[in-house]
Amino acid sequence: MTEKTDHKTTRRGFLASGIAVGGAVASGRAAVAGEAEITEMQPWRRNLGDPVNNAPYGTPSQFEADVLRRPVAWLTPDATTAVSFTPLHALDGTITPNGLCFERHHGGVAQVDPEKYRLMINGLVDRPLIFTLQDLLRFPRENRTYFLECAANSGMEWRGVQMDGVQFTHGMIHNVEYTGVPLRYLLEEAGVQTAGKWLLAEGGDASGMSRSIPMEKALEDCLIAFKMNGEALRAEQGYPVRLVVPGWEGNMWVKWLRRLEVGDMPWHHREETSKYSDLMADGRTRRFTWEMDAKSVITTPSPQAPVLHGKGPMVLSGLAWSGRGSIPRVDVTLDGGINWHQARMDGPELDKSLRRFYYDFNWDGTALLLQSRAHDSTGYVQPTKDALRSLRGVNSNYHNNGIQTWHLGKDGRVRNVEVT
Ligand code: MTE
Ligand code: CO
């Protein structure tokens, strides 16, 4: 593919083009304001603003109208089997606003009436049970912030550079504070029998999507969630109830959850399906790759967030996460991996949750090759894309957690590239 070769950059070639990177952050970054701009009577000072309660459910400023989740035409077979991506380049902090959480549906967005909602537990239990939403609200609940990443996130990049923005390379992820009941409480109420080692979680949407989950995980930290970031789940995220499976691939987080069946073996064995496994170079498949490996990406600068301010002080920022624990450390390189610098971590270090990092430096205006590399609390270090390919080949579409490279040009524009 010519596309691919165009985007391949060797470190040597890059260095030959000249690079010098400033170290410490410069002081005196205050911009000089034009006198006229501050003394002028701007329209928003001259006239009264909009009335209170003009928008009973608030929306973002009109000037942020292009911050939207977006689909990709060639990845959209039809509107009900589709994915839309989180605009990571426009966000900061770690919480994804509800209206911007990427969505992935196999049978469209179900509109479930909460009055008619039912959750059933059956199979190898002493007491099969049916819960209404009101029933669920009578169990003690918890608040936990977790990322959800689709196993297909970055999958389009397995065989080389494809997408021209972090929204599309990494936007099948969101990070939300969930309010919900530990699944353990419901299973205790039903009384799981000794032979009950697996759980089938089934969705109430037209796709009836279902996944098998080991009982150990179900009892450990899964939540039956009904709130996201304080308010009711959005219909797109499974209103009124979704399953939260912390750190594990998004597909298992069944939305519009209607049934939990306790069984003695996983259902995908019974169906003899190789769905949701990774195809390797030698024709074998990797199965049960549920935990999401540590990963990170620079969100600004990135192709959709170019550098508009020219050389001088720059705030580089990104996100890191791990399905196995927390993110104590992220490294950043400006020269495609020759020199690494420890990033400044900000905010709490939570398990299975996004962590924000910054690297504040003085840009001398030369071209840079930007990368970030996550370390998780188990000691695992995010690999390069080539290291992943040498292990797994290029037939996979899932679980690509390789290091992402952005080329920042002298003009401030950013391109998706790979370094060899
Ligand atoms: N649950 C049901 N019932 N139907 C679905 O289509 N899609 C799954 C999972 N749960 C799906 C589902 C997939 S592949 C992913 S990645 C996540 O939901 C996406 O969750 P989100 O739409 O909240 O981002
Ligand atoms: Co998915």
What does it look like?
The protein is of the alpha+beta class and 420 residues long. The chain has 2 domains: 8-24 and 291-419, Immunoglobulin-like (Sandwich), CATH 2.60.40.650; 100-287, Sulfite Oxidase, Chain A, domain 2. It has 10 helices and 25 strands. Strands 1-25-24-23-19-20 form a 6-stranded mixed β-sheet. Strands 6-5-14-9-10 form a 5-stranded mixed β-sheet. The longest helix is centred in the middle third of the chain and has 8 residues, at 183-190. The chain is globular and about 70 Å long. It starts with a helix and ends with a strand.
Total beta strands? 25
Low confidence ranges? 1-6, 15-28
Give the overall pLDDT as a whole number.
90
Structural class: alpha+beta
Indicate the CATH topology of the largest domain: Sulfite Oxidase, Chain A, domain 2
Whole-number total of structural domains: 2
* Computed CA radius of gyration, to the nearest angstrom: 23 Å
Strand order of the largest sheet: 1-25-24-23-19-20
Bound small molecules, deduplicated: ligand MTE, cobalt (II) ion
Write down the CATH class of the largest domain: Alpha Beta
Strand content: 25-35%
Report the helical percentage.
Answer: 10-25%
Task: Write down the overall geometry.
Answer: globular
